[in-house]
Write a structure and sequence with these properties.
Blueprint: H1 11-24, E1 30-31, H2 43-54, H3 67-81, E2 90-93, H4 96-107, E3 113-118, H5 122-130, E4 134-139, E5 158-164, H6 176-189, E6 192-196, E7 219-224, E8 237-240, H7 243-256, H8 262-273, H9 277-299, E9 312-313, H10 321-330, E10 333-334, E11 336-337, E12 349-352, H11 357-371
Parallel strand pairs: 1-10, 3-4, 3-5, 5-6, 6-7
Antiparallel strand pairs: 2-8, 7-8, 9-12, 11-12
Helix pairs in contact: 2-8, 3-8, 4-5, 4-7, 9-11
The structure holds 4'-deoxy-4'-aminopyridoxal-5'-phosphate (PMP) and glutamic acid.
The site of 4'-deoxy-4'-aminopyridoxal-5'-phosphate has 13 residues, from helix 4.
């Protein structure tokens, strides 16, 4: 059997392509499937990348990234996250996705196990499988918290626990207590934790904590620019972790992508060192949209936990989520079926609210037609 036989196509990307294709054919479809900010990248970031292009930053960069950006990332991780990181411990990657792949590929060998909490974003399971590991699924509580008995799923083969807070697709934020419980297990049993913090800045009424402050020797921290800085198409992210893991991740980087695009890295450095006002403005808009979306879904009679972060709502539905999403397409809205996010998630659908308020209101009206038919 080929190692890719058990890997599914990315449901999020496949659906985005399908929605775009339907739009190209002239169909009136509103896309709430893809998790990509609708905002443009702030102009000072674009200017920094343009300047880099104009001044010849068109050569290969050092494989782990340009020193200016690695230093800026380390400074951010110290200041925002309380992590004791130096620039030379950071690898800049073409998107957080590549960082996650490199971390899984570095840590997981044939037959090793990795724990994933369902619901979980679609690519973790694929990265584990591409590393020839086995995903051990643990269902989160409905409010997104960690179930008490999760430690029972740890075996001698467990190498990695992947966490993602704020969570895609549920928007749940892990409490300090839950993080400590995971940290204690990781420490006791000698397991690594991959903490995907890409939605860290998109958080509403609660606080983000980095598990790396609790178990620095066991944590691989991943983050990126796609969400907070509306830079999805720039393909830029980063990772830091303990020396042994860092060394392996760097080998993956050197032998696959060489280095992330050089002039893009100057834009990313400006994102971190420049004004953070645009981030706060985007978060304010996501917050207003979240309130409208959750109210709209609840008014349709759907149960929906209040997402505390990211830009997804995760309502419960009755019936098969794939069939529901297919039928919703007929009503002019594209959403992602819960089944894509792990076992036991087929009774949810994911609605990304990274769209304009007008589109959201129109989309909710279309969904209401469907759910009240
Ligand atoms: N982690 C999560 C939870 C995501 O939703 C995404 C989607 N973009 C990624 C990582 C990958 O982001 P990037 O664009 O930086 O590769
Ligand atoms: N992460 C986003 C999503 O979940 C973008 C697509 C992807 O990378 O999966 O929709």
């Amino acid at each position: 059997m080929s190692r890719l036989d058990q890997v599914e196509e990315s449901a999020t990307l496949r659906l985005a392509d399908l929605t775009n294709e339907l739009k190209r054919q002239g169909k009136d479809i509103l896309g709430f499937n893809l998790g990509e900010p609708d905002f443009n990248t702030p102009s000072h970031i674009i200017e920094a990348a343009e300047k880099a292009l104009d001044t010849g930053k068109t050569h290969y960069a050092p494989s782990p990234g340009i020193p200016e950006l690695r230093e800026a990332i380390a400074e951010k991780l110290r200041k925002d996250n309380g992590l004791d990181v130096k620039g030379k411990e950071v690898i800049v990657t073409p998107g957080a996705k590549q960082a996650i792949f490199a971390a899984c590929f570095s840590l997981i060998n044939k037959g090793d196990e990795a724990i994933l909490f369902a619901p979980s974003w679609v690519s973790y399971d694929a990265c584990i499988k591409m590393s020839e590991g086995k995903t051990v699924w643990v269902k989160s509580n409905e409010d997104g918290s960690v179930p008490a008995g999760f430690v029972d799923h740890v075996t001698k083969k467990t190498k990695l626990i992947i966490i993602n807070s704020p969570n895609n697709p549920s928007g749940a934020v892990l409490s300090k207590k839950d993080l400590q419980a995971i940290a204690d297990v990781a420490k006791d049993r000698g397991i690594y934790v991959l903490s995907d913090e890409i939605y860290e800045k998109i958080i509403y009424s609660t606080k983000h904590y980095s598990i790396g402050t609790m178990i620095p020797e066991r944590t691989i921290t991943v983050n990126g620019f796609s969400k907070a800085y509306a830079m999805a198409g720039w393909r830029i992210g980063y990772v830091t972790g303990p020396k042994a893991v860092y060394d392996n991740m760097l080998k993956v980087q050197q032998h696959t992508i060489s280095s992330p695009t050089t002039f893009v890295q100057y834009g990313a450095a400006a994102a971190l060192t420049g004004s953070q006002v645009p981030v706060a403005e985007m978060v304010k808009q996501f917050h207003a949209r979240r309130d409208v979306v959750v109210k709209g879904l609840r008014d349709m009679g759907l149960h929906c936990e209040m997402p505390e972060g990211a830009f997804y709502a995760w309502p419960k539905v009755e019936g098969d989520s794939e069939k529901i999403c297919e039928e919703l397409l007929g009503y002019g809205v594209s959403l992602t079926p819960g089944s894509a996010f792990g076992p036991g998630c087929n009774d949810h659908i994911r609605m990304s609210y990274a769209s304009s308020m007008d589109q959201i209101k129109e989309g909710l009206a279309r969904m209401k037609n469907y759910f009240s038919r």
